[in-house]
Amino acid sequence: xxxxxxxxxxxxxxPDHWYPSDLQKRAxxxxxxxxxxxxxxxxxxxxxxxxxxxxxxxxxxxxxxKLEGVTEELNVVLKQFEEKxxxxxxxxxxxxxxxxxxxALVELMQPVSAGHNLFEERPKLAEWRRRVEEAVGKQxxxxxxxxxxxxxxx
Length: 154
Hints:
The protein has 7 helices and no strands. It is mainly α. The protein is globular, with a radius of gyration of 16 Å.
């Protein structure tokens, strides 16, 4: 999906903030896009699979110790995300939204859809989410996440 996003950015000459021409900003976007595969994506998906899909498929309740371990793994990468990528900036690459922010928030919505409100005790992360939603448009954001946010109702 990252390759497709980069292709679309180049093919349709999207506004510069999505994939900045400034080399330092672009490096921040590229760094996040490379990091997220084995961090945010892996840990967020694991929580979703463990909390929603496995109990649905097996018909068995989830052992609490398993959920604790998976949640702690996610907490570790969320802390890294806040400290390394967000720091004190409005967005990952600086003052404007980029593909990195879009990809990050999409991945974080999987644990949210499993009933894990990871923004609740993280004000920096919650503010960043608000800024990303506003930049994309709240209605479009809700529309894009409608399916995943209803997954726990299966």
